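STRUCTURE REQUEST FORM
Protein name: RNase H type-1 domain-containing protein
Source organism: Medicago truncatula
Requested output: structure tokens
Priority: standard
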Amino acid sequence: MGVIEWLERYTSRLNSSRRYMKLGGLMFKHVLREGNVCADFLARLGRNSTLGVTTWVTPPNELLSLLNFDAFDF
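Status: completed
Returned output:
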């Protein structure tokens, strides 16, 4: 995917998010990486990657475990 295609996709998603925010259907909350094990996992994965951008159809198994753990607020 080229830079233009990536930017178009990102801009479209950002605009959709802004519309949801105006309707009161979306709220952003900043959480430090250390407090979000899923974000921390992805950041470490990205840091060790030689690829520019990685897209998954389904999350990696390690991330699925963390998502399940996070969903139940353990």
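Reviewer notes: Residues 1-29 form one domain. Residues 3-22 form the longest helix (20 residues).
Form closed.
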